[in-house]
Every structure is written in C-alpha cells, then in structure tokens.
Write a structure and sequence with these properties.
The complex is a heterodimer of chains A (about 280) and B (about 300). Chain A has about 280 residues and is an alpha/beta fold. Chain A has ten helices and nine strands. The mean pLDDT of chain B is about 95. The chains are: A alpha/beta (about 280), B alpha/beta (about 300).
Chain lengths: ~280, ~300
Amino acid sequence: MRNRTDDNWLLRVRHLTKIYGEPDEHTLERTGPAHNSNICPETQSIVACAEIGFDLYPGEVLGIVGESGSGKTTVVRMLYFDVEKTSGAAWLRPYRNAAVNYLEESNQKKRFIRNHLMGMVYQNPRDGLNFRFSSGGNIAENLIMAGHMHVGAMRDRSSQLLIKTEVPITRMDDQPGSFSGGMQQRVQISKAIANNPPLLFLDEVTSGLDVSVQARVLDLVRELQRELGIAMIVVSHDLSVIRMLTDRTLVMKHGRIVESGLTDQVLQDPQHEYTQLLVSSQL
Amino acid sequence: MLTNNKYSNRYNFAFIDESTKKEIRRKLLKAVAIPGHQVPYSSPEMPISRGWGTGGLHVTLAVIGREDIFKIIDQGSDASVNACNLREFVETMTGVRTTFDTAEATLIQTRHRITEEELQEDQIFIYQVPMPEPLRLVEPYEIKTKQMHAEGDYAKMWVYLYESYVRYNGIMLGADYPVKVNGRYIMAPSPIPKWDIPNLDNSKALHLFGAGREKRLYAVPPYCRVEPLEFEDIQFDIEHFSGKSCYRTGYQMAFLDELYFDDYSKHFVINDSNFMDKISSKNFARQHSNKYINALK
C-alpha cells in the first residue's frame, strides 16, 4: 500500500453498531460468534453488527466477507447513510479534515457527503438506478447533485463514463430497464463514479450475474481502481471476488469481525475456525 | 322595546367565521415569511366544492376588508363563469365594490393568469391553485417531497428537465412551469402560462397562493427573486406568437388566445379582457416589462 502511515487514513470507523429491537446492557455479551447467534435470548433484539472498527487508506481496497446475515451489508449501508446507526463513529478525511463524526451530521450535510465524497454500487441495480430515467439521466442525476448545471457538459461526461464502462453510447438515452443485468450494473458503476468520489462502496456487485459477465464487471472495477485510485470497500460472500479485488479483508460472522488481515494471508492461512471453514468450503 | 339583531345577518362578514379567518391569516403570515414554502391550513367548507377555486376564495375572504376593491379573472377574463360566480359570492358576502379595472383593484383573485398590466405595491394578487406540489411530477409520496423540500434536494426535478430535453429536444413544460423562489424553494406558480412567469420576479405586489383541495397556502412577497428552472445551456423561454397580432386591436405584445371562427379561419385575440378593453379604447395601461417581452420588441 502506497505511503501508508498511522494517520493518513481516509476513513476511520470505530465501535459501529446496529441493533434492531430494544436491547438491554447485556445484549452485546449474549450475542456474537461465541454464542452462535446474533439474536439476544433475553430481549429478542437482533444485533446486525457490533463494535465494527477499521481504518481504510487512500486508494486501498478493503473486503468484507461473511455468510448472509453476518452484517456485512449493514456496515456499508450505515457508512453510506442508508441505515441509521445505533452507536459508533466514523471519520472521513476529505470531510472537514476528519474533525467530526460524519455519521452524526445533519441530513443536509449527510446529503452533501453522499453526493460529493462517496459512491455506492448496490447488488440490485434497482436500488441504485432510477428505472424511469434514461441511463444518461441517471448519471446526470449524480452530476446535478454535485452542482453541475450544463446539459452539454453532463452529456459529455456521461458518454465518457459509459465508454469507460463499455456500455454502448448509442444506448445512453435508453432506460436501464431495457438493458441486460451486466449492463445495468455497469451503468450503476458509471453513476457511482461520476463525481470522482474518493470512496466507493461495492455491495455484492457480481451476485446474480452469470460467470462471464461477472468477470467483466470485476475487470472493470479493478481497472477503475488502478486508473482512478479510488478507495473501495467491497462486500461479498464470494471469496474469489475478494481474492481478485481486495488488499485487506475483514471476515464477519454474526455481526462481529472474527478475523482481519491482508487478503492473501487470510485466505492462505486462516486463523479463525469460521474463516477456515469458509476457505475450505470454497476450495 | 328591545330588538334582537344578533341573527339579522345570516352570514358573518366575508362568510368565514372570524376564528377561521384568523387561522388562515396566521398561515399566510408564515407563508410570506418563508417564500415558496407550502403551509398546511384548515381549508374550511365553502358553498362550492374543493378544487373549484376554494383556495383562492379562502385567501380572498380572509384578507378582504370593507374598503377593498375586488377584481377576479378566470384565464384572463372578467366575464367567464368561474369569475362571475365567485365575484357575485364575494360581493354578496362582503358588500365591497368590485371592478374590472386592474389598476383600480386592491385585491385581485385569478385563475391561471397574471394580468398584462403591471401590479403595484398596494395590490394583493391571489391565485387559485390546483396542484401546489411542483415535485409531484417526479415523486408520488408526500412524505418524500416534504423531505426533498426540507433538504433542498431537487436533483430529481432537474433530471426530469434533462430527460425532457433528451427526449424532445426542449423542456416540454407549458403552464405551471416550476420556479425557484428566493434561491431556496421550488414552487408551482399555478398553471399560469410561461409568458407570466418572468412577471412574478421582483414583483411590486404581494402574491398569495391558495390550494383548497390540497389544503396548502404559499406566498411570494413583494420584491422577491423568482427564477424559472433552467440549465446553463438550455434556457427557459416564454411563448412565441411569431408575429401574430390581436385581430381586434392589432396589438402584438400580449399573451394571445387562438380563436377559430365559423368560417374556420384562425384569429388571435388578447387573453386579458381588461387589458384589451384599455388598448382598444386607447386608455393607458402600464404593462409588465421583463427581458423576454423586451426581446420581442
């Protein structure tokens, strides 16, 4: 990783927790991998994720891997404001030089952060794209949110992005509903990177695509990362995606991080028994 | 002998009871204080159905005084059915003097037009609004449009304009063209033609909007900035009548209606009836001036 020191991180997350229901003071102790459940036996509250902490460095790609229901998606959705956090804090370097916990800003400021400093690619293109707008319009939406007001310039930028993501520009004014799944996903990626955000979240981007299309989407993500140096958090249950894209990996189970480290290290020499199970079932 | 006069008047002055009028006035004050912001209000029962001009009528009846001179137009005309009926109602309920003369009126209620004659500081202009929510075009849920207004999140509206340009090579909005008020709220100006939109900007008069069916009031105070939504390279423009002139007066610089005669010939006529009367009788009428109309000259 380039020029990494202790304090040049881009995103710092500490004690990030999301609990559904009404927990009591023992809820966190009674849940987690050790108890093999994320449902509190006393209060029935569900601990989606708890005490998540990590640093992400500029240009780095961090993977979050785990089985479904392990809370990995909840983590990125909280960081992107789709889900309200229960407790915890996160700081973003480009936002007021990380002086404030950005998860506690006003809605207007959250919108600014979302529009200017982050991009998100959802598993389902319907979450990230507006299917009533053309694909060019979808990209323009992000540009408008970041303050662009020139239609000609926006169309130039949209076509650049579509070329980069290998969507034929002749389809720019068509609605994404008429596209194949892989093309929809590539339009979604164009939209997410339209404002050159320093941070991009990828939530299960290849799940639901067939294998050849998966490979092309992954190639695209890797190429964009190399070209633009965007820091990314990649959420996946698929270890081959994690192996291909990420520098570092967090392994989650029942809402907790059970293991973290360099991706190669985690996958070659898994320490936690859950990770061992994950890796062996993969191979 | 003692006489009881308590019930000799069958209605309160201006029909609505005083406490409800007070409620409407308080909501109007709030609306004026936050230009372009929609304020919910009671929308009390009237002898006409909601959606037939009750919003404008509520505002008129809440602000009217015995000295006011009242004018009401429907699509620019003093003589159309909606205007005549509401005029008669206001006259019966208040006993105020009514007029067709735009310059003389202190209170003007309107459906879908701003008068051609320029409004002055001592005039209040009241609109009947069918759809107060400009974002309804792009967002069906009230809870979401409220949030969009609160956070100034108007991207969807702008994309709608962008899409319109992409599909039809122009912004395909006619009447009710959305405007930004005081640099903050996007507002529906009621279905006035694009011709009238620039006349809202920096107007000397107070503009009050009432949507009876939707139960919303909003306002544009005097000398307030009102800008039509436009991109840097795709600009708002008013209607063009491409050199056509009013067949009765020969006048060109007004919003014209298209008429077909019995012999199928097409003619144009000034839409604002009082303005046309003044033009044809050579009376002075100071017209609104704005960069779009000036460019036509």
